[in-house]
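Homework help board

Subject: predicted structure for assignment chain

Our instructor gave us this sequence and asked us to write out the predicted structure in token form, then describe one feature. I got the tokens but I'm not sure how to describe them. Can anyone check?
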Amino acid sequence: MGGIDVANGVLGAVIGMVLATLFQQPLQDAWFKIRRRSAYALRTLRRHPEEPASTWTTFSLGPLHTAALIVEGDGESAITPEAIHIQVLDEEIALPAEMADWHQEIAEESAQLQAEGRTPVWNGLRYAVESFDISRTALDEQPEVHLRLRPTDYYTFLAAQQLDRRLPSGTTPRSRYLDPDRPLAAPAFLQCSFAVNVAVVTADDMLVVTRRSDRVRMAPGVWNSSVNEGLSRHIDSSGRNAPDLYAVARRGMREELSLEPHESQLTLLAFVLDVERRHWSAHFYARLTELTRDGLQARMSRGVADRWEHQTVDHVPFRPAEVARYLLRTDRIHRWAPLAPALFHLALVHVHGRTAVERAEAQAVRRL
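My token output:
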């Protein structure tokens, strides 16, 4: 009997191995879909019914969750240049004493790189966000944005990006200075980044999508907006004048895609905050008036000022269903820069309307 039991055990093991081999991949695929859809269903619940829902929730599209908080703008209405009021304060940002050494570490790293004949970390002049306030005009309730900036530099920005590094007290900058329930409340030294992001659509309705170079220091290799350009104190401020966000967007389009200002219609759609890294952005939509995808590719083949910032330029038909599927592709969904998906959604809403866009996005999510 013992020999029969052993034989039966061996036979059962062999049959089990064969069945596992035959059905392993289908079972894994089915299990993955169940887990993904269950996770999405749980996320949509967010809180117990008796708990108040937060007004401030970041942008998501089905299983695609980002840190992008749309602070002002819905895509449908444009924010005019006259509605933007920017003030540059005199006093430069200073890091707390417990973080000051981090700035010095970056400076020493840059000096070492230069001594070794490698590319140093350039300490460019930039702006920190002191405050961002929104109001409405009295008669027509149009938005008015009041942005106050302080001078800072790139080394301070890099030091402040170490939000989860331990301080001597045992806390971190994130736990000590940031409150997740008050996402707009943060000290200026943790908000040393303000940029413009532009969704560029060619004359033949192709959305330009870029992939950041592996050579850039921040977020290398991720898929991003058509154009991403940070505010520069050296370039974007004439004397003591405040920067013009529309001018910054046009500069970025020229430097990254070789586009001249007269070749597009530019619209400001929203102001958005990456709540994880404290990056502020003005989200723009740019429609090329004559240049098609082929024309843009030909233009870029003849030279781009900042070609090194991108390793890939992709083109997607600018239709709600096509863009939604592209955002959710398995080789894209976990490789997006935090602010890009919200930008493309807002641009779609601006052109196609909220109802059509949300219907197409819901269908794309259901088909996963």
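Reply (TA_rk): Your tokens look well-formed. For the description, you could write something like this. DSSP finds ten helices and 13 strands in the chain. That's the kind of observation they're looking for.
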